[in-house]
Design a protein that fits this description.
Layout (H helix, E strand, L loop, with lengths): L16 E2 L15 E2 L7 H10 L7 E10 L10 E5 L2 E5 L2 H13 L4 E10 L8 E5 L7
């Protein structure tokens, strides 16, 4: 059973960034426990990523995700965008964005890369596409 078999479960100036490399060898669904929000608003971006990598029939896709601070966000000055390959795929939930922003700033950067996993139901012709992150670096 994949990590997204039930998608309805509860879930500024550019500074230097921190990057990691993510191979698919040994990647486990259990490593990705942090749910991103707002993916439904980014469906076109997510589908384009899946098509670009030819993984539509796979059901999951491991990829690095960039957390970017968004201090000019009108709704939340501590908002943290989640980006994959330069396109937005969601946000860190507002209830945690302040803590994540503090931890990113404490590293002296405005963006930080973490392992990410996109997942969807391959039996659905119009599946919801979820995004989960490995936020162990942040204690989440």
């Amino acid at each position: 059973m994949g990590i997204f078999s039930n998608p309805f479960k509860a879930k500024g100036a550019r500074e230097q960034s921190v990057e990691i490399s993510l191979g698919t060898e040994g990647v486990s669904d259990e490593d990705f426990t942090f749910d991103v929000v707002g993916e439904s608003f980014q469906r076109d971006h997510l589908v384009a990523l899946l098509k670009k990598h030819g993984v539509i029939n796979e059901g999951r896709f491991a990829t690095p995700a960039m957390l970017e601070l968004e201090p000019t966000n009108d709704f939340d000055p501590t908002a943290v965008k989640v980006m994959v390959e330069g396109v937005q795929v969601g946000y860190i939930p507002k209830v945690l964005s302040g803590d994540v922003t503090k931890k990113i700033k404490a590293k002296g950067v405005s963006e930080f890369e973490v392992p990410g996993m996109l997942g969807w139901d391959t039996n659905n012709p119009m599946p919801l596409i979820g995004v989960r992150l490995n936020m162990s670096e942040f204690g989440l």
